[in-house]
From TrEMBL:
<dbReference type="Pfam" id="PF00069">
    <property type="entry name" value="Pkinase"/>
</dbReference>
<dbReference type="GO" id="GO:0004674">
    <property type="term" value="F:protein serine/threonine kinase activity"/>
</dbReference>
<dbReference type="InterPro" id="IPR052059">
    <property type="entry name" value="CR_Ser/Thr_kinase"/>
</dbReference>
<keyword id="KW-0808">Transferase</keyword>
<keyword id="KW-0723">Serine/threonine-protein kinase</keyword>
<keyword id="KW-0812">Transmembrane</keyword>
<keyword id="KW-0418">Kinase</keyword>
<dbReference type="InterPro" id="IPR011009">
    <property type="entry name" value="Kinase-like_dom_sf"/>
</dbReference>
<keyword id="KW-0067">ATP-binding</keyword>
<keyword id="KW-0675">Receptor</keyword>
<dbReference type="GO" id="GO:0005524">
    <property type="term" value="F:ATP binding"/>
</dbReference>
<protein>
    <recommendedName>
        <fullName>non-specific serine/threonine protein kinase</fullName>
        <ecNumber>2.7.11.1</ecNumber>
    </recommendedName>
</protein>
<keyword id="KW-0325">Glycoprotein</keyword>
<keyword id="KW-1133">Transmembrane helix</keyword>
<dbReference type="InterPro" id="IPR000719">
    <property type="entry name" value="Prot_kinase_dom"/>
</dbReference>
<feature type="domain" description="Protein kinase">
    <location>
        <begin position="1"/>
        <end position="237"/>
    </location>
</feature>
<dbReference type="GO" id="GO:0016020">
    <property type="term" value="C:membrane"/>
</dbReference>
Length: 261
């Protein structure tokens, strides 16, 4: 992709450049949400089982067509539903106009019709993993929603999901953002590179969406379709009353943290 990945602009080779202004970040947040909310028409019509899905994706890969261009849309219309399992900044690719596409479906799983979740081996990137998945291997569409919430906090703040601090210490983005959210100090969440050039109402909406997505309990998270509506339809409020807005840091298994070092 012409502009590589979101990671490259937040933390990588373009991080020193001011490439991501506020409108661009909003565009990326909406584009990534749309990519997780719908499934590309080919998949919708094909309705693959697990084996057929893998064969189909390999065929596109052999034709040098990236996963993101095949699987433009994901959760909402596909039957069975497709779970990405590795939503993160390096898997959000950006075209010449900074339109976001969700990439790399190597860890994708199919959830059978009628199933609320499946249990599987843990894949993905620590810091983005939903607690029920990281600790018990329970994967559902809501796991991608959680990862998206972390991604949005990363997009707002310019911080990595897990920061190394001190001598061997770690600080998650939820541990850092939680107190600021609780005190409604949303402006203090914003990447200093933006120099406070952002739309206040858009920031509030985006923070609310991120917090809803990053709730510890899956049943408290919205669907990705609801997220798209919250970000694009101003008549739909993320939260009618957000006095109780809060983030609860995930307590990762020490073995997982050690393996990630």
């Amino acid at each position: 992709m012409p502009k590589l990945s979101l990671f490259s602009h937040l933390h990588g080779q373009f991080a020193a450049n001011f490439t991501l202004n506020w409108p661009t970040r909003m565009k990326i947040a909406i584009g990534a949400a749309e990519g997780l909310a719908y499934v590309f028409r080919t998949l919708q019509a094909f309705k693959p089982n697990a084996v057929a899905f893998r064969i189909m994706v390999r065929r596109f890969h052999s034709q040098n067509v990236s996963y993101f261009s095949v699987c433009r849309y994901l959760h909402h219309y596909a039957t069975p539903h497709i779970i990405h399992r590795d939503v993160k900044a390096s898997n959000v690719l950006l075209d010449e106009d900074f339109e976001a596409q969700v990439a790399d479906f190597g860890f994708a799983k199919l959830v059978p019709d009628g199933a609320t979740h499946i249990t599987t081996g843990v894949k993905g990137t620590l810091g983005y993993l939903a607690p029920e998945y990281a600790m018990w291997g329970k994967v559902s569409e809501s796991c991608d929603v959680y990862s998206y919430g972390i991604l949005v906090l990363e997009l707002i703040s310019g911080r990595k999901p897990i920061q190394r601090v001190g001598r061997g210490g770690m600080l998650t983005i939820l541990e850092w953002a939680g107190p600021l959210v609780l005190q409604r100090r949303f402006r203090d969440l914003v990447d200093p590179k933006l120099h406070e050039t952002f739309e206040e109402d858009e920031l509030t909406r985006l923070v609310q969406v991120a917090v809803l997505c990053a709730q510890n309990l899956p049943e408290n998270r919205p669907t990705m379709q609801e997220v798209v509506e919250m970000l694009t339809e101003h008549t739909k409020d993320p939260m009618k009353e957000d006095d109780g807005l809060h983030l609860e840091p995930v307590k990762y298994d020490p073995a997982l943290l050690a393996a990630d070092e």
